[in-house]
Amino acid sequence: FFHWQLDFAMVFARGGFDLQIGNPPWVRPISDVNALLAEGDPWWQLALNPSESERNAKRAQTLQLAGIRELVIDGTVDIAALSTFVGSSQYFPHLKNLQPDLYRCFMERTWMHASRVGVIGLIHPESHFTDDKAGPLRSETYHRLRRHWQFINELQLFEIHHLVSYGVHIYGSERLEPNFLMASSLYHPDTVERSLKHDGSGPEPGLKDPEGHWDMRSHSSRIVEVNNDSLIAWHTLLEAVETPNDHSRMVYAVNRSVAAVLNKLATAPRIGALKLDFSAGWHEKNDRTKGRFERHWGTPIRWEDVILQGPHLFVSRPIYKTPNSTLLHNQDWSSVDLEVINTDFIPATSYKPVGDPKVYDSNYTHWQVFDERLPARDFYRIAWRNMAANTGQRTLDPALIPPGTAHVDGIFSAGFAEHNYTKLLVINGWLASLLTDFTVRAVPKSNIRSGTINRLAFIEDGLTEHLLLRSLRLNAVTDAYAELWRDVFTSSLMHLEWGPGYMSPSGTLL
What average pLDDT does range 421-427 have in this prediction? Predict the structure, then answer.
């Protein structure tokens, strides 16, 4: 929106800027109708989880206030026009079909304004490195990068949320082949400065040091050189064959040993080859607005009335937490003690089905099996939290949920519409492993959906019965899993060791 060529005519007459440096806006132009309505009535920012009927009635009332209707229209149109402009391929050719984000516009603009020997230093987010649709922008970025230092804001160097990640990016003129230095999972700029001078001695650092603090130790192995071979390895690990190598999403390796492990996993078979069926569940906002379910705390009497949310689950723990009756906020949950629950335990939920049960059933995910469409809710499924906790205790947290269960889109789930429960349990065990969690964390994304699961390595050789037994004993802890035990349990499982000294040679549980 700034007339660069007019205001800096003399600079462009000499070929452009030799140095550009800055911290562009980290803003997505998204309209916030509630904030606009709150200009007339603060209820829109203060109300705690109002029902859809309350919102509809209040909206009609608020729009009758003097000037509010015009304010809402003007504010919405402004954002729509801005989104259209910053998504224009004429002005920003590498942003075509991407969600508008102002920092990406500044990337494009600084590249255009640089002289032949120009250098650019920008601090900005890194969503384009993992965005499935941002291949053209990644390609241009890889060919221009000279240095890439990725930080996590755990030390609160910026007055933003402590989990936010961002990067320091040094760009130059476009190269024929990518070649830049990279370091990831940094918490303080001093770490990378000292790592560039380090002699390579001592153990390689990780995410946390031996004392459990965020690891700020310097080491030469933190500095990874990224070139065309690196992009080929990333491509093998993450992308479809038809995707160009330089469109590959970025892999974040905290040190060179991690990079070597990821390179080995790149050659392993993929879960996608197993042809899992997936379900996004109910859309938490839209399907609630359509009247599929309502917010109401209580314990259902059957699994068919259960609608799970993310905090219900953890790693191999389908029964992990339940919401408190107060429903104050997204952390108002309590842990479940598995040692005291009954075999018919069903968790309390915040949402309950409403309306015609047939309509509720027919609108939930169905899976195609030959010529028949079957409800996904009829099957045992692997479920995990959709939102990726890239710096949390675990990033991928799969658990096995029983038939009848529904979930909102804060959870994603997968299964086999052909009742292949042995394979399902083995996959669940593999997804619950530290190695798989490590692979997901190395390619940080905001959400974990089918694409992320399908690209993961799957190594089954010699592990089938061990993964099967562990998945059963950790997940299948109530009567809701009785059919699963009957379907897959064999006497050979009695002779496997769950842990050192857990079973006697005769198979007796100790």
Answer: 93
Q: Per DSSP, what are the bridge partners of residue 145?
A: 171
**Separation of alpha carbons 130 and 445, rounded Å:** 6
Say how many C-beta atoms besides its own lie within 10 A of residue 493's C-beta: 17
Q: Which two tokens stand for residue 496?
A: 């496997």
The dihedrals phi and psi of 64, each to the nearest 5 degrees, come to -80, -15
DSSP 94: G
What is the overall mean pLDDT for the chain? 90
* Residues paired with residue 367 on neighbouring β-strands, in sequence order: 374
pLDDT band at 509 (very low <50, low <70, confident <90, very high): very low
- Confirm if 400 and 475 have CB atoms less than 8 A apart: yes
For the stretch 277-309, pLDDT in tens is 999 999 998 999 899 999 999 999 999 999 999
CB 58 within 8 A of CB 33: no
End-to-end CA distance of the chain: 72
Count the Cβ atoms, other than its own, within 10 Å of residue 217.
17
Spatial distance between the Cα atoms of 128 and 501, rounded to a whole number of angstroms = 49
In sequence order, what are the residues at sequence separation of 6 or more whose Cβ sits closer than 8 angstroms to the Cβ of residue 153? 160, 161, 162, 163, 164, 165, 166
Model pTM score = 0.76
- The encoded tokens of residue 371 equal 């010529």
* Cα–chain center distance at 252: 14
Query: Per the structure block, which two tokens stand in for 20?
Result: 């550009």
Beta carbons within 8 Å of 120's beta carbon, 6+ residues apart: 19, 20, 21, 110, 111, 114, 169, 170, 171, 172
pLDDT of residue 507: 42
Q: What is the pLDDT of residue 212?
A: 86
- DSSP, res 340: T
* DSSP-assigned states of every residue in 378-429: GS-EEEEESB--TTSS-S---EEE-TT-EEBTTEEEEE-TT--HHHHHHHHH
How many residues comprise the chain? 510
499 pLDDT band (50/70/90 cuts)?
Answer: low
Angle subtended at Cα 506 by Cα 502 and Cα 460, rounded to the nearest 5 degrees: 60
For residue 2 the two structure tokens come to 């700034």
Q: Is it the case that residue 502 has pLDDT exceeding 80?
A: no
Helix ranges, 47-181 (H): 52-62, 68-86, 102-113, 135-144
| Residue of 356, 401, 384 whose CA lies nearest to 456 | 384
Q: How far is it, in rounded angstroms, from Cα 110 to Cα 171?
A: 9
